[in-house]
Amino acid sequence: MLTIKLQRIGKKHLPSYRLVTAVKKSKMAAPPVEDLGSYNPRTKTGAFKKERVLHWLSVGAQSTVTAHNLLVSHGVVSAPKKAVKMSAHSGSASGGKAVGAKTPEAETAAPVATVAETVS
């Protein structure tokens, strides 16, 4: 199955991406089927081949969520953006839970007595 995805290029700490059509299970550095454009996240600029992107989508290639949202924001594809789904363990060092997030156990637990109530 073919997919339209971002392929990272550039030096360390200076990311730049190519929008490519490639086999879905291919490795990151594998040669793509076709180069469809480029995107620079530092300047938020992108140059895409609109006709070729629409061709691959019409043939049946699926785009990744990030590539789809990027194409929508640059006006190449006229569709609503897709929600990005993050796994529970990705992100922060606290096990994926946001700081200050309430757990279900904390909501159902009995209220904690304050210091003033325990002294009197």
Give a quick rundown of the structure.
With 120 residues, the chain is α+β, with helices and mostly antiparallel strands. It is 24% helix and 24% strand. A hairpin with a 4-residue loop joins strand 3 and strand 4 (45-48).
Please identify the top-level CATH class of the domain at 2-73. Alpha Beta
Architecture (CATH level 2) name of the domain at 2-73: 2-Layer Sandwich
Tally the helices. 4
CATH superfamily of the domain at 2-73: Ribosomal protein S16
Whole-number radius of gyration? 22 Å
CATH T-level topology of the domain at 2-73: S16 Ribosomal Protein, Chain: A
| Residue fraction in strands | 15-25%
What does this structure look like?
Helix content is 24%, strand content 24%. It is of the alpha+beta class. It has a domain at 2-73: S16 Ribosomal Protein, Chain: A (2-Layer Sandwich), CATH 3.30.1320.10. It is globular. 17% of the residues are buried.
Which descriptors would you attach to this protein?
about 120 residues, alpha+beta, S16 Ribosomal Protein, Chain: A, 5-stranded mixed β-sheet, 4 helices, 5 strands
